[in-house]
Design goal:
Blueprint lengths: L9 E4 L3 H5 L1 H22 L4 E5 L18 H22 L11 E3 L1 H11 L1 H4 L12 H12 L1
Parallel strand pairs: 1-2, 2-3
Protein name: SGNH hydrolase-type esterase domain-containing protein
InterPro entries: SGNH_hydro_sf
């Protein structure tokens, strides 16, 4: 990305799902976005639009990972809150402002997964790999549709 002479229109980024969901780790990501990623992006691609991929909640609570983050709905709401905070921080600290075409955008993949959970539970289980964390091929397809949509 940064060694290429090519200019990028979009740069797609995501965080670890539980980091976005927890205020204490969310702040670390915000600092990393502002101090490291934003200068790198603007150095080479001043007009590139950051796409922040809101990752989906885990299919089920995972011990030592997400058991404290509540139901799928609660976990998703926490992740959404985190990504909104990321976008606000990015836009407040960038050379562009939130209302411009180059402002950070959120690809609400987690909300799409939640929609499937509520409306098509038989498909919900097919969106994840056996680890209950990572998207399966079907889940990756849904992610791609949301990102390009």
């Amino acid at each position: 990305l940064f060694s290429s002479r090519r200019r990028w229109n979009f740069v797609v980024m995501n965080d670890h799902t539980t980091s976005a969901a927890r205020p204490e780790t969310r702040q670390v990501t915000i600092e990393t976005l502002i101090k490291i990623y934003q200068p790198l992006l603007f150095q080479r691609n001043a007009n590139a639009v950051p796409i922040l991929v809101m990752t989906p909640a885990h299919r089920r609570p995972i011990e030592n990972s997400s058991i404290d983050l509540g139901t799928v709905e609660e976990f998703t709401a926490r992740v959404e809150e985190g990504y909104r905070a990321y976008a606000i921080a990015w836009n407040q600290h960038s050379r562009v402002r939130q209302e411009t075409a180059s402002a950070a955008r959120i690809a609400p993949v987690g909300l799409a997964f939640l929609h499937v959970n509520k409306d098509r539970p038989e498909l919900w289980i097919k969106l994840y790999q056996d680890d209950d964390l990572h998207p399966s091929l079907c889940g990756s397809w849904l992610m791609a549709l949301v990102i390009i949509g």
